[in-house]
Amino acid sequence: MPSALPxxxxxxxxxxxxxxxxxxxxxxxxxxxxxxxxxxxxxxxxDFNTYTATELRGTGGVLASRDNYADTLVDEVRLAxxxxxxxxxxxxxxxxxxxxxxxxxxxxxxxxxxxxxxxFGLAPDAEITTEANPESVDPAYLATxxxxxxxxxxxxxxSAKQHVLKILDRTHTPGRPEACVAEARAAGFDxxxxxxxxxxxxxxxxxxxxxxxxxxxxGPDHVSAYALIVEEGTQLARRIRRGEVPMTDDxxxxxxxxxxxxxxxxxxxxxxxxxxxxxxxxxxCLHNELYWRGADWWGAGPGAHSHVGGVRWWxxxxxxxxxxxxxxxxxxxxxxxxxxxxDRRVERVLLELRLREGVPLSLLREAGLAAxxxxxxxxxxxxxxxxxxxxxxxLRGRLLADAVVRxxxx
Length: 410
Known about the structure:
17 helices; 19% strand; single chain; 9-stranded mixed sheet; globular; alpha/beta
């Protein structure tokens, strides 16, 4: 969740949505994102809305404390129940992210999940995920999460090489994420993900291969691999600007992606989104698919974004301001926008093109269709799906996904 918030119209004090957003809501999937904005230290590449204890000291008082954060977030879940109404609507996915959710006590995460279950109900096969820092969990912690209803966990591994982790300011030691996978399996987790980052300054092709091999050796059923993006305002951006570390170029990112695809596919992992691979359909992250397919989700927590029926809104960023709004009985929303039909069409093209199933050609305008034919002739789209009415990226197309999608929406 990037730290910058967009502009938008004010959110009503009670958080009420336009009637159009709730029309037909009972027939649409609903997910919850629960944001935990705390970190023990700030990673050098991080631009997310997160806070260390030092950054919060003196800025939010007791309201910003992580000790009572679960109670505050539960208040927003109850607000969601009032806003979304009483139509029967079970929650399909819950995703606890951050920050470092596992800095909270395991019981706090379970209590947050219980609030969603009590207010809305969970689908029988609901996917319940939390992100975790490898150094902040142990077998007892994982067992508490599993007993409390979590069935999927995502560990931030980033790299298996110490010198790469040092550049990223990651605090875990090599080997710990792989051990966490075994501990999660022993605790009964059905699905486990490892997050990797490629393109860190100083990383070699062999370093990246070693990270992939280490991740695969741990046996997760899902791997996410993201190119490092150097955001302005981060410590890493300042180090690059001072010439302390080199900037990785796009050609290196492309080479690393090809290594990832070759290695993961050979090990039985299939891509289902440009940066995500799973060993089976059951291993796919259903919560992220809600985002990519424009479904409904409520984001609770400081800076969290939500979308329901074509209305998108976002909360105030600071934990103190967030808690203060809820304590006063008001929505923590900072702004919102009502999407037009054209907005939603464009977003579908932008997001669904990244998926293995692709985007229906029927969503493209005349210029986009012409661009799709060019992309097909250039080997950027698969021929079979195209003939069946969908634009699906080839491997080469995935390398140029941003450029392809720009052409298709123009």
